[in-house]
Amino acid sequence: MMLFLYFIVALLGVSFGSFLNAIVWRLHTHNKITERSKCPHCLKQIAWYDNIPLFSFLLLRSRCRMCKEKISWQYPLVELWMGIVFVFVVWFEWSVVGMVFPIVVLHWFVMWVLSFIFVYDLIYMEVVDSITLGSAVILFFIGGYVVWGGEWFPLLIGACLGGLFFLLQYILSKGRWVGGGDIRIGILMGVILGWKLLLLALWIAYVVGAIISVGLLVSKKKTMKSQVPFGVFLTSATFVVMVWGERILSWYLSFLSF
Ligand SMILES: [Zn+2]
């Protein structure tokens, strides 16, 4: 029975992964959300049987049926990731917190938004404001009620801190260190995590971001001038802190209390 439930949840997650890919492509090409899927190379419409998440990619051996161009690995990877994450959220809520359905749905939504920002920033080095700010507003009101039980104060402080943190860098560097999109991600992170865990997530994002940037510089894959998609680090850190934040924090504080 449990296995069947996880299977259904995985299918749901994979479908939302497919939806994520579609939205990324449509927002980038300014196509309508409701438009039918097309091959990005030959622009021919994709039949429904070639548009089944994961399966079609395997059946077509990663090539478009019409033009035989390679289909990007982004599609199956994002679908698989969302399937795993949806199952993980249910498993986590079930075994750690005790299953509360509205919280599960809300955390699915958070994971979807974080993954969207991650993918979009990684591919196009851009942050879509409507997604970031729109979900920040939704998560503040609904998340504040469902997850935080009406305790909006830590979220409000978190949103202000997250926004100000990047706004300050933006002003100081005249927009060279961080982009306007990072300010909005900061607000979103504060709304998801509350101010305490937000600080931890920022710290992790900066440390990991610095290590990887130095690594890329040393291996000459990037120069000092080239941009690093910082939203990728911010969303990853938010994910890690959402799941393990409390544990990391108490582990860290146990060092201070010697
Ligand atoms: Zn094609």
Description of the structure:
With 258 residues, this protein is mostly helical. It contains eight helices and no strands. It has helices at 2-29, 55-59, 74-97, 101-124, 129-146, 153-172, 180-218, 230-256. Helix 4 crosses helix 8 (230-256). Bound molecules: zinc ion.
Which secondary-structure class do the elements indicate?
mainly alpha
Number of domains: 2
The portion of residues forming beta strands comes to under 5%
Ligand species: zinc ion
Distance between the termini: 47 Å
Apparent shape: globular
- The number of helical elements comes to 8
Percent helix range: over 70%
Spatial extent as radius of gyration: 20 Å
Total E-strand runs: 0
Secondary structure layout:
Blueprint: H1 2-29, H2 55-59, H3 74-97, H4 101-124, H5 129-146, H6 153-172, H7 180-218, H8 230-256
Helix pairs in contact: 1-3, 1-4, 3-4, 4-5, 4-8, 5-7, 6-7, 7-8
This protein binds zinc ion (ZN).
Index terms:
binds zinc ion, 258 residues, 2 domains, mainly alpha, globular
What's the short version?
With 258 residues, the protein is an all-alpha fold. It is 72% helix and 0% strand.
